[in-house]
Amino acid sequence: MGDEDIQGQLCRLGLTRTQADIYVSLLGEGPCGTDDLALRMGRHRRGRETGHLLFECQALDRDLAHLRRLGLITTTGPDGGEHTPVEPSIALEAMAHTRSAEVHQAHLAAMQAYRGYRRSAAPQGTEDLIEVVKGPHVAERIWNIEEAVESEVLRFDSPPYHTHGTANPVEIEKLGNGVEYRVVYSRSAVQNTDYYNINIKPCIAAGEQARVLPTVPVKLTVYDQRLAIVSMSFVESEVKDYLLMVHPSSLLSALTGLFETSWRTALPMHLNDRVPSSLQPVHRRILELLATGVNDDTIAELLGVSRRTLSRHIEAMNTRAGSMTRFQMALYAARNGWI
């Protein structure tokens, strides 16, 4: 990388072109005093007859002081009159962090300005279509909305969780009262052993219809076709707890359509009544978990058995199906109504 490239990179980190030139000069030609550096930089300190030269030398002193504050150079020599570059990793990391924070602030300022424009440009009344909820009230609003549901809940489920991935007694109560729940889980949700045992498994046992995809397109719950909440991931949101509430509109219809499309392509997480009753319960569970796409370690952990025990169960299932591979066993299970 040439000097020009190095100088350009340093400027991207926040140095001025002159400061980058000074630092590269010290790296390339070695430590020197202020007068020699001025000669290198074309800023002759000797013979300051004009105010212009004096101004340039004062600017050089300010640039050197700035580079010392950043930790890129230090003074050495008996009288501290030489400027010497130092190992730059700590200084460069601090500069990169500062620059990143400045870019982030600029991003937020631009986004806030655009939101102000949208609020001023939006037709009167449309501001009621979307509501923003953030901070400590998020989890409370989620529970309140779910407690008021009457007929149907559609959900894309994936971490992270505003409710901290705890049990969902409200859903189990609603399922007992005849509310239909259809949930598409991401594989990452199923692979979380604690969440699976505390939340997913009890809800399926209570009547939830559950399917799985490798990933879900958005964190979404639709209540009674009249309200949707869209949660944003921690990376996307400006604050940790942040969600959008979407009221009846074309956007709500589009989100509902997105769920239905994903539901049709997702794989079931629980088997139907056609599965032979002679199939052992543990084998039914293994088939369900194999269909989710999680690995053997996760299946063994979810079942609370060792890998060796899991292998014995899968071998027994292959024997029953007359198959040699899992693919053949899956074909047999599909053809015989197991899944």
Descriptive keywords:
single chain, elongated, Arc Repressor Mutant, subunit A, alpha+beta, Endonuclease, Chain A
What does this structure look like?
This protein is 53% helix and 15% strand. By secondary structure, it is α+β, with helices and mostly antiparallel strands. It folds into 3 domains: 3-91, Winged helix-like DNA-binding domain superfamily/Winged helix DNA-binding domain (Arc Repressor Mutant, subunit A, Orthogonal Bundle), CATH 1.10.10.10; 126-268, Endonuclease, Chain A; 281-335, Winged helix-like DNA-binding domain superfamily/Winged helix DNA-binding domain (Arc Repressor Mutant, subunit A), CATH 1.10.10.10. The relative contact order is 0.07. Mean pLDDT is 80; it is low at 234-239.
Question: Main beta sheet, described?
Answer: 8 strands, mixed
**Fraction in helix:** 40-55%
Structural class, from helix and strand content?
alpha+beta
Question: Biggest sheet: strands side by side, in what order?
Answer: 4-10-9-8-5-6-7-11
Strand content: 5-15%
| Extended strand count | 11
* CATH topology type of the largest domain: Endonuclease, Chain A
What's the pLDDT, averaged over the residues?
Answer: 80
Shape: elongated
Order of helices and strands: HHEHHEEHEHEHEHHEEEEHEHHHH
The first-level CATH class name of the largest domain: Alpha Beta
